[in-house]
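Review box. Two proteins, two foldings.
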Amino acid sequence: MIYNAVWLTVVAFLWGATNPLIKQGSAGIDKIQKSNAVWQFVAEITFLATNWKYTVPFLINQSGSLVYYLTLASTDLSLAVPITNSLTFIFTTLTGKLLGEKIGNKETYIGMVFVVAGVSLCVMDKAFTGKS
């Protein structure tokens, strides 16, 4: 049980830490202007696929999806979803802050503490009561 929670935390980190990097890597895509929707789509895909600042974080993010898929085979969904979704938010916020983004106020950080406390309670409940 705890083993799965650790892997789900790794997933949340891989997803959350790469979200701000993907956002930064895609900067400039809004400047692409083509004559029709098909060429616009092709130009945007080409822009992203040839931009290492986008593709490297994207591939790391997708490795998190692979770990998530593999972990789901032995994890209770009632734990997998809250752990990954809530902790992804926290890792996204912290990474964004490290990259210089303006991140909320003290209420944001208080909320993050509550999220961590709630996820911890869920994991402890499953671990110590033997429910799966």
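Next protein.
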Amino acid sequence: MSKMLGFDRQIKKEWLDMTMELLIEGKSTQHIREQQERFMALDLPGRDARRKTRLVISRMWLDNNAKLITLRKRALEALKENPEIDTRIFHWGMSIATYAFFRDIATIIGKLIALQGYFKVSQVHDRISKIWGERSTLTRACSRVIQTMLMWKVIESTKEPKSYTSFEKLRIAVEGKHVAQWLIHSLLLSRENGSIAAEEIRRSPELFPFSIEIGLDSLLVSNGIKISHRGIKTDFISLKENNN
């Protein structure tokens, strides 16, 4: 059975911001879905298009997914404590943790930008099809993920058609220990082995739009992250058990 792409719609940042705000206010899932329906109607006149778009967001923020409970809770707590945090950090982290398809595209784009300073849509399509296999919906879904990144202003067009680079070649600063720990938590959840070498965090291709400034000593005091030693100089970071 083929894996589900899942993230196959263009998702505006404003829709996700509204969802987070309503969750912080303690609104019910039904109320949130009703508000999403009203808000999306301005851009998506088709009922089926709205339903499919809400489904993408629901898997991230509303559905009963044990893997994401802690991640969601900590994101809402962080934003409630500091409403000035750039919410793209949370939207990106939830996207890679929820959707392997989004994560794989982000990884491909991050590697291409690191290698050549830009990426072409055709390059991403070719590489993602090798991972997910040829299917009728793949090209469109891939393009919608890229368009979502464009709307979030983490990438921008170059002078070449269907070619993009990181937005203004500036990375989004992830400031504050708890926010950095949260984004690393999302990265660990997105990876099949659930771990990463500490020295690789800052250059993880999945997190290409972000600049994480956090020392290893700060990770040691995290409730959800543990550090293990493999070899003389290599520290690996992974999630603690029962800290999904």
